[in-house]
Design a protein that fits this description.
By secondary structure, the chain is mainly α. Helix content is 74%, strand content 0%.
Length: 110
């Protein structure tokens, strides 16, 4: 593994976001990842699926007026968390916290 675990997990938050939006096998795979080593073992599949999803979204909405806004999921709250935390959190960590909190809010509404 060439990345520090913290950096690897930070990027994995973005993969989980994509998987949640795609669903299916991609989402199921992320549920099986339990360690940084597992992220590395599955890196090619995870990255390929994420890039494919993002490319489809961007190609369909180049001006970010419709569906492309999905890629910002978790970012608004995440940016607030990032600002409040200062240098203690990486961007991806703050966005992952935003995603987590947003999912909790959705869960409470149902």
């Amino acid at each position: 593994m060439t990345l520090k675990s913290r950096c690897l997990v930070e990027g994995y938050g973005e993969i989980v976001k994509c998987a949640a939006l795609v669903g299916g096998d991609f989402w199921q795979l992320t549920g099986q990842i339990k360690s940084p080593q597992a992220i590395m073992r599955n890196a090619n599949v995870l990255i390929e699926a994420s890039v494919r999803f993002k490319a489809q979204i961007v190609a369909a909405d180049e001006t970010e007026t419709r569906r492309r806004q999905l890629l910002n999921l978790g970012h608004t709250l995440g940016h607030a968390v990032e600002q409040a935390a200062g240098v203690r959190l990486f961007h991806g960590e703050a966005v992952a916290i935003g995603l987590y909190q947003l999912s909790r809010l959705f869960e409470q509404k149902n």
